[in-house]
Amino acid sequence: MYNKLALLALSLRAVRAQQVGTLTPETHPTLNTQTCTASGCTTVANKVVLDANWRWTHSTSGSTNCYTGNTWDATLCPDDATCAANCALDGADYEGTYGVSASGSSLKINFVTQSAQKNVGARTYLMANDNQYQMFNLLNKEFTFDVDVSKLGCGLNGALYFVAMSADGGKAAYPNNKAGAAYGTGYCDSQCPRDLKFINGQANVDGWTPDSNSANSGTGNHGSCCDEMDIWEANSISQALTPHPCTSTGQTLCQTTACGGTDSNDTRYDSVCDPDGCDFNPFRLGNQSFYGPGKTVNTNSVFTVVTQFITADGTSTGTLSAIRRLYVQNGKVIQQSNTDVSGIDTTNEITSNFCNQEKSAFGDNTGFQTKGGLAKMGKALQNMVLVMSIWDDYAANMLWLDSDYPTTSPASSPGVARGTCATSSGTPADVESSQSSDYVTYSNIKFGTLNSTYKAS
Ligand SMILES: *[C@@H]1O[C@H](CO)[C@@H](O)[C@H](O)[C@H]1NC(C)=O
Ligand SMILES: *[C@@H]1O[C@H](CO)[C@@H](O)[C@H](O)[C@H]1NC(C)=O
Ligand SMILES: *[C@@H]1O[C@H](CO)[C@@H](O)[C@H](O)[C@H]1NC(C)=O
């Protein structure tokens, strides 16, 4: 929800660019998924690619860093266009440098990886082939995966979500982008992030301000907006299911304060997107015994997460009317918990009525409704890219997910209590040292017609 990517990249060889570098071969890990109908599932050999922002970006002619720490090289990168021409994005050592490993139908992402440099977090995309992201139309379908959050503590977020990126990472639309999806370009989300080093075939050097609290990140004048469907933002303590619509269609560049979101603090709601979303966090919605270690959905062991996108007319082009969630653990189907909040009708699904009542009951910003609500989210869901990541939060210590937030309000105020983590938890400095061996595993991804991807046993 307050998705600021604390991407911590590499201090010595930091970054990303728009040309293609060849110093490290780019070999996309294979990840098997399944496509299902009522008559059964078939296996698909997908691949996974690391986002461009984590990659080493260096001179096309050699190996001079274009970006080091959180600063651009002034000679190679005097402005956005020159920098994109001078700099290449190189291949990734997935496991050794970034802690990303795939085996069969399972993808594991480690939080901190120490090689010659320290890497924190990672963001990956599912690919259809080596040059294209896998596109999904989620309407009238369900998306299912198994997750192991048992080693994801307070302050971390193992996020599996969809964003309206271009299938080729922007390569055709922006010919200066020679790298494309093969190198994980074209990211966008509902925070309209300004920490991206390259957007639309240009670097983001102009106006770049290194972050005061992160040695590897900064923000430039440009951001990259698009609709975002957060299927799963979670650690072992709390989790949320959150649609974030935008009024724009597809990936869209924004300028400075008009980017809103986490990177434009005082103009948070000024972008084309809804940075807050209409979140369904069982704890925040009144059931504190539903999700967590030893709870109804027991985060000490693996479980299955099923998310259904229901349309009003029961077709894959209809208006999105509800987002449903259920879980399967130890062979038992567990329905999403019911809300128990004054002012919200009892429900266990996201509908327009639920979102209206939640915003009102919690006194939250109504950007969800003004940016098009569930109906616009549904339109975007016809063309989405799957993201799997792990991150820590330099903006708000993930307290919006797993603690009392905002910390200035009493925990007893409606909507403030979101999880049992301490309000002092989740600082990046703390989690990157004390929880450096944390990880998340996503596995057994299945996509198909309603009720085809899971069963009780
Ligand atoms: C952003 O907003 C938070 C909360 O309102 C505040 O504590 C923080 O100082 C702000 N940061 C900037 C850079 O304005
Ligand atoms: C939480 O959800 C579980 C499962 O739906 C239910 O059995 C339990 O009664 C709920 N607890 C509260 C306090 O609402
Ligand atoms: C899916 O299962 C649920 C609950 O078992 C049922 O209510 C619903 O009608 C089913 N939907 C379809 C399309 O089979």
Helicity level: 10-25%
Distance between the termini: 34 Å
CATH class: Mainly Beta
- Shape, please? globular
Bound ligands, each once: 2-acetamido-2-deoxy-beta-D-glucopyranose
Q: What is the CATH architecture descriptor?
A: Distorted Sandwich
Low-confidence spans: pLDDT under 50, at least 5 residues?
1-17
Number of separate domains: 1
Q: Report the mean per-residue pLDDT as an integer.
A: 95
- CATH topology, which one? 1,4-Beta-D-Glucan Cellobiohydrolase I, Chain A
The largest sheet, given as strand count, sense and whether it forms a barrel, is:
16 strands, mixed
Counting DSSP H or I runs of 4 or more residues, the number of helices is 7
Key descriptive features of the protein:
33% strand, mainly beta, 457 residues, 7 helices, 3-stranded mixed sheet, binds 2-acetamido-2-deoxy-beta-D-glucopyranose, 1,4-Beta-D-Glucan Cellobiohydrolase I, Chain A, globular, 16-stranded mixed sheet, disordered N terminus
Explain what you see.
With 457 residues, this protein is mainly beta. The chain has one domain: 1,4-Beta-D-Glucan Cellobiohydrolase I, Chain A (Distorted Sandwich). It is built from 7 helices and 31 strands. The strands form 8 sheets. It has a 16-stranded mixed beta sheet that branches. Strand 12 (122-129) and strand 13 (132-133) form a beta hairpin. It is globular, with a radius of gyration of 20 Å. The chain starts with 18 loop residues before the first strand and ends in an 8-residue tail after the last strand. Bound molecules: 2-acetamido-2-deoxy-beta-D-glucopyranose (3 copies). One 2-acetamido-2-deoxy-beta-D-glucopyranose is lined by residues 287, 289-290, 296, 337, 340.
